[in-house]
């Protein structure tokens, strides 16, 4: 029947796909037999299956060689002749049990792969034949490493193929090589991003993340196809993010990168990482030709993660509500700077360089974040720790008022100078809150002449602010009149 199918495909052009259809049917039959019958796993059956696959391999390879001589459907013939030996080796490895068969099958697959790649490299003309030989060679290498190596090393070994594929694609551009490269990279991304969390049995070391990132980056430098190069740079950026995140968890949890725990320190570091990478992704999107929507969507998700993470730091992980020792008593240069100061800078950069439609929201987050950060630093400076238990008194209360007043004045003046109504309104609201705090809290304990002097000082400050505001308004009006 097999011989009849092959002969018929040579005689009738409408039956040219029958050889590949026969391969799929017979391979599926072997798989179903081994899934459904226990007798299929005996030594006698293993020998019979190997003999059968050997005969099939000789028939298919002979058919491919004869078809190439006839020059009828050369692409189908060459693909069949190069790929079926690898399919047979995969079936032998999976469904036969013989001594040393694992190492032998892996070595044979590697030899076939290297032979295909060598023959393709020696081929002078850049046609389908060279492409199919290179494609089959990399599949042979992939099968060899899948058989021989464990899951962690396998990922790194598969990533090494991307470098050779990028180099070969530069010499012989073809959609098949491009597709193979993308399939390998998508498998690697899935393996490193998702599987370690849902399937802990897949062991993954930090070296694998670093190696895959480095190999993909090298491949992006080797490839000369601009669109594919941009795609490779995007994947390398994704792997770089994974490597940074995993290196952080490796350091925090003493090597246990996949520990199901999330604390204040990790949240502080992740906020900086996600925010910075979100802005990088957004900028990177303008340099890409085909992946701009992907980069901008990734930037949007990362900046959303920054905002949500910042919300967690203000609520669930806020050291004011939870006694912990993660924040040292050293003033200013402590974890508060990273957890609550760095996000303010990232919000400001996002307001300046991210989507104009979200500019007001990010400026609002930056302003509120600055106010929160300064209050936390003041509390830490006066108390040496962060806690709501000690009552704020004396100098600490006055420090809050002074800082709030300075922020309100700066917002009012800058909002007036730049004609930014929302900033002016925010400054006015903060000024009213500050004045209310001074009258109701700060001066409640003052008596006599000291109380009078305090009222006079506050009044003079407000008068000075009013005169400055009027001066700026007159200057702005004069400039508009001249124009």
From TrEMBL:
The chain crosses the membrane at residues 20-41, 47-68, 75-94, 100-118, 139-168, 206-223, 235-252, 264-283, 298-321, 333-354, 360-376, 397-417, 423-440, 452-472. InterPro entries: DUF2339_TM (IPR019286). Keywords: Membrane, Transmembrane, Transmembrane helix. This is Putative membrane protein.
């Amino acid at each position: 029947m097999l011989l009849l199918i092959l002969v018929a495909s040579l005689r009738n052009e409408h039956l040219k796909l029958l050889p590949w259809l026969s391969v799929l049917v017979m391979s599926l039959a072997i798989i179903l037999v081994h899934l459904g019958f226990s007798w299929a796993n005996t030594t006698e059956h293993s020998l019979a299956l190997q003999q059968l696959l050997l005969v099939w391999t000789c028939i298919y390879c002979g058919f491919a060689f004869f078809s190439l001589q006839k020059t009828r459907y050369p692409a189908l013939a060459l693909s069949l002749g190069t790929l079926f030996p690898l399919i047979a080796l995969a079936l032998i490895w999976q469904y036969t049990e013989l001594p040393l068969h694992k190492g032998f099958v892996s070595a044979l697959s590697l030899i076939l792969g290297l032979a295909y790649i060598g023959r393709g490299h020696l081929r002078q003309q850049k046609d389908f034949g060279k492409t199919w030989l290179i494609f089959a060679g990399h599949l042979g290498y992939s099968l060899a490493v899948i058989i021989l190596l464990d899951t962690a090393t396998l990922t790194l070994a598969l990533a090494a193929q991307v470098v050779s594929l990028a180099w070969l694609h530069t010499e012989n551009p073809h959609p098949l090589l491009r597709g193979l490269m993308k399939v390998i990279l998508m498998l690697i991304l899935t393996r490193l991003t998702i599987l370690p969390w849902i399937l802990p049995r897949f062991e993954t070391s930090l070296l694998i993340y670093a190696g895959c990132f480095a190999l993909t980056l090298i491949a992006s430098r080797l490839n000369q196809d601009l669109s594919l190069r941009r795609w490779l740079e995007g994947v390398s950026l994704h792997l770089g993010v994974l490597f940074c995140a995993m290196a952080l968890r490796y350091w925090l949890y003493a090597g246990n990168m996949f520990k199901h725990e999330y604390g204040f320190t990790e949240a502080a570091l992740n906020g900086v990482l996600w925010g910075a990478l979100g802005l990088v992704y957004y900028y990177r999107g303008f340099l890409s030709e085909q992946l701009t929507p992907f980069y901008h969507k990734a930037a949007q998700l990362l900046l959303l993660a920054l905002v949500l993470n910042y919300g967690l730091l203000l609520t669930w992980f806020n050291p004011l509500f939870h006694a912990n020792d993660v924040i040292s008593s050293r003033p200013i240069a402590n974890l508060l700077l990273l957890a609550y100061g760095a996000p303010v800078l990232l919000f400001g950069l996002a307001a300046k360089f991210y989507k104009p439609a979200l500019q007001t929201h990010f400026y609002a987050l930056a302003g509120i974040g600055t106010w929160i950060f300064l209050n936390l630093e003041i509390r830490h400076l006066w108390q040496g720790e962060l806690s709501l238990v000690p009552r704020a008194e004396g100098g600490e209360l006055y420090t809050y008022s002074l800082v709030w007043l300075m922020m309100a004045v700066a917002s009012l003046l800058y909002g007036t100078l730049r004609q930014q109504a929302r900033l002016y309104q925010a400054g006015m609201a903060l000024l009213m809150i500050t004045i209310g705090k001074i009258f109701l809290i700060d001066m409640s304990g003052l008596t006599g002449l000291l109380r009078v002097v305090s009222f006079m000082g506050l009044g003079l400050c407000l008068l000075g602010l009013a005169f400055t505001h009027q001066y700026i308004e007159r200057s702005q009006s004069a400039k508009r009149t001249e124009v």
